[in-house]
Automatic annotation (TrEMBL):
InterPro entries: Glyco_hydro_71. The lineage of its organism: Eukaryota, Fungi, Dikarya, Basidiomycota, Agaricomycotina. Coiled coil: none annotated. Transmembrane segments: none annotated. This is Glycoside hydrolase. Residues 1-16 form the signal peptide. The keyword Zinc does not apply. GO terms for molecular function: glucan endo-1,3-alpha-glucosidase activity. Gene3D superfamilies: Glycosidases (3.20.20.80). The keyword Signal applies. Pfam families: Glyco_hydro_71. It comes from Exidia glandulosa HHB12029. Keywords: Hydrolase, Signal.
Amino acid sequence: MKISFLSLTLFALGTAASVVPLQKRATPKLVFAHFMVGILGTTYTLQDWVNDINLAKATGIDAFALNIGTDSFTDTQLSLAYTAANANGFKLFISFDFAASPGFGTNFQTEVVPRLQTYAPNGANVVWNNKALVSTFSGDGFDWSGVRSAVSTQLEIIPFYQAANINPSIDGLFNWQAWPSANNQPVNTPMNTSADVFYKSQLNGKPYMMNVSPWFYTHYSPQSFNKNFLFKSDTLLIDRLNQVLQIQPDLLEIATWNDYGESHYIGPLHEDRPQLYSPASNGESAASWVSGFPHDAWRDIIKPYIAAYKNGGAVQISSFEIVYWYRPFPKAISCSDPRLGPPTGSNIPDDAVWAAVLAPTAGTVLTISVGGFSSNFTVPAGVNYFEGNFAAGQPSFTLKQNGNTILSGTASKAIQTSNCPSYNFNAFVGKIPA
């Protein structure tokens, strides 16, 4: 039996910021969610964008960083996104994916400049430091001077480059690293802030954008995207959010809203349109590890941290809630997977049922039960996570105060310890009350 309790002291450093419109203040603390436009195709509608925007706003997210490539539908989706944002008091900015579309570097006059000419002055574009924000995924070494001179709107360029590749043509840096890794390989160590500290040291006061992510698992064969690995993610979300309050970056980005292929989405599933689940050209799809695995409840953990990051002070909780997550199979199970063996790093995660309690006051008792095992934990105030047993069955959770049950529920997905058709290290996430 494995039972452990982890309690986090959650404080935000700095002073409270006044509440003002995004475009009116030069350098507010803002929070973005990385949004993969390249998976949308032609089926994503204006109403889909509105739905996403409303969910993001309810979480405290200020804008989507629109990761784009050179797909045929890119400009249609950009138009829909900016239309929805303007109509709903939300912000956006473009993040050019140089890794997926190297042509952004070689053909910037036709691929980058026209889009920034159109959207940098748009009322829905994020304005930071009195300039229109733009970012990238990769693109190290690209000189933005030619783009600046060709775009009539002043740009605040904060790309994801390696810290050593900062150059005079950019204004700051975004650090994509949000998972424990070494040379992009899984490691069995907790996430730390060494990369964040190094980036800030190289920037010499220029703005730093930090990345937060809840999970990472992907399972594509060499015949498609050739990605079959995971990063240590058991308690990554809360651990990393706590690091945000320590580092106090100028800007914060969450990876991601909808990257289903790498399992780090916090936005809604689209079970009616599995074609959105990052299909490969050979027909492989993330649907095999994403369908039926919602992550929405993680937004309830993110929300109070965003408020603390922006305003300073402690994380504030107003009502009791349980957010739980767990994998569907034990890590050592042998699956009859027709495509692939177990992912690299499969030995790293704990076999556990995790539950975070959002508690406005101390003194409640949490019980996690599954497969005949039960574990009890005394809960402090704030956001604290707990590790329960991992066994076959549907986990259930009870929170009591002075002996009286105030929250109780059972997860809908059962843990299975046999009959595994395909490797799946994604997290099933839920909450009580639902």
